[in-house]
Amino acid sequence: MRIVFMGPPGAGKGTQAAILSKTLGIPHISTGDIFRANVTEGTPLGLEAKKYMDAGEYVPDGVTNAMVRDRLTHDDARPGFILDGYPRTVEQVAELDAMLRSAGTKLDAVIELTVDIDEVVQRLVKRAAEQGRPDDTEDVIRRRLQVYAEQTAPLIAVYDSHGILTQVNGLGEIAVVTVAIAQAVNAQ
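RE: above sequence
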């Protein structure tokens, strides 16, 4: 299966994608992890991405698309994948569709985790303290949530029109959310 997880930062996409990845035996591909790996390795794409990440802004489509395109060519992603954090713009939806079309495949499901924004801010501030993530200050978190609402929320309508979108409340207990996601995936 080829699945996209959507929702604002802190909605639980990473946690749920990791669980579903193990269940389905397909890789969980997080753009955040791809970005951090490129930044840590000091790649040209990573250095470019870091400027935007530090400001709480989205990394430009060209940089993001190049990183994702490369990752989807790895052998483990051929039978399927779970994308977490991509696509984030309407332009990236078109780019992902083109990538998949060229590989003779398409998306099977899009899962949107819905959340209360104030609770997400609390989650991310706590995660920042626990994991020492400098990109998760409260100001940057609120900016990321604002950017998400402005740029990513329109994708919900696009995927809904394709008939592959399911909304799941991301604020429940992890196991309850996992069951709801499994039901949504099985329905597709």
